[in-house]
Specification:
single chain, mainly alpha, ABC transporter involved in vitamin B12 uptake, BtuC, 12 helices, ABC_BtuC-like, membrane
C-alpha cells in the first residue's frame, strides 16, 4: 500500500496506463494497413528530434539541456511521418525502402547531433529504451495531453480511418478525403511514438503498438472489438511490466514487450490447438455420419 502513495509510482502507473491505452489504437490502423513497421521508421526520426532538441538546449544555454528534447521529437516525428506517407502515396519508393532510409538516417543523425551538443551516446539510452522511472509531473501532463488527442481522433474517426486503411478504393468511392486521412494516421503514429518514448523507448515502441493488436485479432472478429480488446491488453502488459520492475531490477520497456510476446505466443498456441481439436471432432462426426448412412443403406 505504501507503494501506491509514492508519487513516483503514481506517475509511473499513470503514464503506463495512458501509453497502454493509446498505442494499440494507432497500432490497429497500422496492422489493418499492413504497415506494422512504420513505428520503427518514425521512431528513429523522433530520436533525431530528441538529439536536435538537446543541441538547441545546449546552444540556448538552458540549465536542463534536454528541455527541448520532447518538442524536438514531436516536430521531427510528425514531419517524418508526413514525408513517409507522401513518398509512399506518390510511389517515389517502396514503403519498406522508405522506412529503412528513415530508420538508419534517424539513428545516425541522432548520434551525430547529440555528439555536437557535447553529450555522449549514453544520453540517448533513456530515449532508446525508455526511462519511466525519471518521469516528472510535467511528463505526465504532456503524455496525458498527447494521449487524449490520440484517443479523440483515433476513436472518434474510426469509421473513416478504418475505411481508408482497409480499402482505399472504397473510401474514394464514398467521397472520403483519402490523402488527408492517410496523413492523419501517419501523424497519429508520430504522436503516439513521442508519447510512448519515456515508457518503452523508440526501439521498442512498435511492440506496444502492434503486439496487443496481434493478440486481439486472434480472439475477436470486428474492427471495433479488436481495438477495444487491444487497448485493454496494452494497459494490462504496461501496468504489469511497470509493477514487476518495482520489485525487481529489470528494464520496464523491455519487460513490457516481452510480456506482449509471451501473451501472443500463449494465445496463438491455444487458438491453434483449439482449431486442431475442432477439426478432429468434426472429422469424427463426419465419419460417424458416413458409418450410419452405410449401415442404414439397403443391401
Amino acid at each position: 500500500m505504501d507503494l501506491l502513495t509514492d508519487p513516483l509510482v503514481q506517475r509511473m502507473m499513470i503514464v503506463a496506463i495512458l501509453v497502454g491505452a493509446t498505442a494499440p489504437v494507432v497500432g490497429t490502423y497500422l496492422v489493418q494497413r499492413r504497415m506494422s513497421l512504420l513505428g520503427d521508421g518514425i521512431g528513429h526520426v523522433a530520436l533525431a528530434g530528441v538529439a536536435a532538441g538537446w543541441l538547441a538546449g545546449s546552444w540556448a544555454g538552458l540549465a536542463q539541456q534536454d528541455a527541448l528534447a520532447i518538442p524536438g521529437a514531436i516536430v521531427f516525428a510528425v514531419v517524418g511521418a508526413v514525408v513517409i506517407e507522401r513518398m509512399r502515396a506518390r510511389g517515389i519508393a517502396a514503403a519498406d525502402v522508405i522506412m529503412a532510409i528513415m530508420f538508419y538516417g534517424g539513428i545516425a543523425s541522432g548520434v551525430l547531433l547529440i555528439s555536437a551538443a557535447g553529450g555522449s551516446n549514453a544520453n540517448l539510452m533513456g530515449y532508446l529504451f525508455g526511462s519511466i522511472s525519471t518521469v516528472g509531473w510535467t511528463d505526465v501532463w504532456t503524455t496525458a495531453a498527447l494521449s487524449i488527442a490520440i484517443l479523440v481522433i483515433g476513436v472518434g474517426l474510426r469509421a473513416s480511418l478504418f475505411a481508408v486503411t482497409h480499402d482505399q478504393e472504397f473510401a474514394h468511392s464514398v467521397g472520403l478525403p483519402v490523402g488527408a486521412l492517410n496523413i492523419v494516421v501517419a501523424v497519429l503514429a508520430a504522436v503516439t511514438i513521442t508519447a510512448s518514448m519515456r515508457v518503452v523507448g523508440v526501439l521498442l515502441v512498435s511492440g506496444v503498438m502492434i503486439l496487443p493488436v496481434a493478440v486481439s485479432q486472434i480472439v475477436t472478429r470486428s474492427f471495433s472489438r479488436t481495438m477495444a480488446v487491444a487497448m485493454a491488453i496494452g494497459v494490462g502488459i504496461c501496468v504489469t511490466g511497470v509493477g514487476v520492475t518495482l520489485f525487481h531490477d529489470l528494464q520496464p520497456g523491455a519487460l513490457i514487450v516481452v510480456l506482449g510476446v509471451l501473451l501472443y505466443t500463449v494465445v496463438a498456441s491455444s487458438a491453434g490447438l483449439a482449431r486442431h481439436r475442432r477439426r478432429q471432432r468434426d472429422h469424427a462426426i463426419h465419419r460417424l455420419d458416413d458409418a450410419s448412412q452405410t449401415e442404414g443403406a439397403p443391401a
